[in-house]
Model the fold of this input.
Amino acid sequence: MGVTEMTARPAAGASAAGAPPHPDESVGPLERGFAVLRALANAPGGRLRASELTRGTGLARSTVDRVATTLVELGALRAEGDGRELVLAPAAARLGGAYLRGSALPETLGPLARALAADLDESVSLAVADRDAVRFIVQVKRRRALSVAFRAGDALPAERCAPGALFAAGWQPADFEAWHTRLAADPSCAAFTALPRPGRDADPTPADPARVEPEFRARIARAAADGWAEDDQLIEQGLIAVAVPVPDPTGAVACVLSVVSHTSRQTVRSLTEAALPAMRACAARMTEALAAPTSPTPSPTPSPSPTLTSEPESDAQPPESPLDPTAAAKEQHGPGYLQSLARGISVLAALGGGGPAGMTLSEAAAATGLPRATARRALLTSARQGYVAADGPRFRALPRVLELGYARLSQLSLGELAQPHLAEVAAAVHESASMAVLDGADIRYVARAAAGRIMSMDIMVGTRFPAYATSMGRVLLADLPAEDRARRLEQADLIPLTPHTVTDRAALAHILDQTAAKHYALVDQELEEGLRSIAVPVHDPAGRAVAAVNVSLHAARTSPAQARAVVLPILRAAAARISADLALISDGAAGLGG
Ligand code: PHB
Done:
C-alpha cells in the first residue's frame, strides 16, 4: 500500500532543486527523537536517566542530550531530579493524538462505548489493527480489581486477544508472513510491553510456538464464521473477553468492540450470552455513527502564504515563519537544539487536524508554517517508521504513533498532571500550591507542592475541607449549574470556622455569583485565622471546571491586593497550562481519572 510506495521512491517534486539529500543525513534527528520517545514509553514510570537512554537506544550521549533538550523544549519530556532524569510529558501525547483526532474514532464511537459499559456494567474497549498487532484506542473501565488493565494506546499481539482473530480474518498471505516473522523473532512477545510479564504471576501455559499457529488459525476461522471472537484467558489467568467487529460504511472493519470481564464474575459462555446481543446492537449503532458526516474539529489552519506555495523544494535553511515556534528555540539553544526534530514532530502532530482523510503536503506545510520541503521530509521519515500512510496525495497518521508515549500519558491522574505545574507556582511565589476537586459539599486535595516553609496547616493529598469556606471550593461551586450548586450548599453545615467565615446563605450565593464572573476566589481567614487563599479553576476540554488550583498565603506576609496583583497571574498561567495538558491526553481516555 501507500506506505511502501512512499519509502520506495522520492515524492513528487523531490528533484525540483537538485538531488535530494541522503535520507540518513536529512532525517536522522526525527528518527532519533522517535527512538528516545519509544524507549521512555516502554520504561517503568515513563522515566529514564540519560545514561540509560544512551544504552537503551544505542545513540551517542551527546545525541541523547540534544534530542532531550529539543523534546524538553517541546514539552514532550521533562527533566527532573538533578536534570538527568527524563520523564515523558503531555506534549508527547500530541503524536498519538494525531491518529486519535485524525481518525475521529474515539470522538465518534467513545460515547457509544461508554453507554454499553454502563448498560452491561463491564469494561468495554475499542481496538484498531496495527499491522499484526491490536491497539486499543478507547478503554472504558469499570472500577474493579482486574488483574490487567490495558490503556488507550497499548498494543497486544493479534494471537493473544479477541480482537486479533477478527482482524486476522481479513489478513492476506503477506500479513501472515509478517506475523510469522515477528513471532519467530520475538516468540515471548517481549516487544509488547503492555503484556503481563511471566514471573511471579506467570502465564500458566507459556506459548509453544509450534502450537500458536494452528490454535490462532482455528480461532480466526471460528471468528470469520461466527462474526465474533472470544479471549478465554489468552493473556492472563482470569481475564476473558468477547469481541465483535465494527464495520465502516464500506463493510471494512473500522475497529473491534470488546467487553472484558473476569472468571471470578463470568465464564466466557455467560459473558457471551449476557453481552453479545447488546454488543451487536452497539456495533450497528457505531457503523451508523461512522456513516454520518463527520465534522472533524479543524485545526487553526492558516491560509498558505504565497511565499510558501511558490517556494522551490530546496534544502537550504527554510525562511523563518511567524508560525514556526522552533525558530526562537533554535536561537535560544543553538547547536544543542535539533530544529529538524522539532519541525518533524510538529508536522506529524498537525496531521490530526486533517480528519480521517488526512492532509496533503501543502496542507501540512500550511498548518505548521513550514516549507513544503521540510514537511515532505518529516512525512517521508514518519512513513518509513510506520507512523504515517500516504493515500495518493494525502497523508494520515497511523495507529502506531500511539506507541510514542500515549498510553502512559493517557493514564496520568489529574493530580499527577498538575504536580510539576504546582511545583513551579510554589517556587515562583514561595508559598504552597495545591489542586483539589469537589467531592459532595467538600473539596478533596489531589496534588500539593509545599513551599519549604513551615506550614501552619497540615494538608496532604486526600485532605478534605468544607467547600463553602475555601477558595478552591468557591471556584468549583461557582462553576456548577444553579441546581447542583444549591443542592451541595444545602448538604453543607455552614458553621463559622473563624469569626470571618461567611455562613449566611444569601451572602454566600452572592459571593459565588461574583466568583463565577471574576473566575477566581480569594478567601480571607474564613477557614483559619491568619490564612489567606486564592484559587482559579482548571477546565477540561468541554469547558467544565474539573478541579481548582490555589496558593495559600500567610495573612501577615501577603495582603489581598498583593495576592491579586502577584499571585493571581502566576496561578492563572499554571491553570491554563494544566488545562492544555489535560486536552492533550483526553482524546482516547474515555475513562479519564477512573
Ligand atoms: C481489553 O480491552 O482490555 C481487552 C480486550 C480484548 C481482549 C483482552 C483485553 O481479548
